[in-house]
Amino acid sequence: MYLSSGMLTAGSGGGGGGASCGSTPGWYYSGGGGGGGGGALLLDAATLEVSGTIDASGGDGGDGCYYSGGGGGGSGGTVWLVADALVLTGTVLAVGGTGGDIDPDGSTSSCHGGRGGGGSDGFVYLEAGTVDDAGATVSPAWTVP
Asked: Which terminus of the chain, N or C, has less C-beta within 10 A?
């Protein structure tokens, strides 16, 4: 197994949306919370069959409240599958979360905060002697380490 330092990492959390003070003195509008980062998973077996879902995706950012901004999406983590024979018919995900929206009423007035940015995709590594991935859904596309 090829495992280099820093390749098996969890995703980072998204940043919180900017807060603002309302037009009424003393009112405060908090920004949307940032989404959590995706996890890190390493599975190593002689024969490995994945028919369900492995999900190391980042969480979505929370929506802003009135004059505040949406939170950023968390980045995807890492899924690393190592096997002599790998049969993959399920779903493997490590995608970034979407950014939170602005004001829940959908206003795009310049006094409102902006939408949160999306988190970056993580990594899916497949390291196997043989791979049968017919019918599998893998996002982002898998790579060989």
From this structure: N
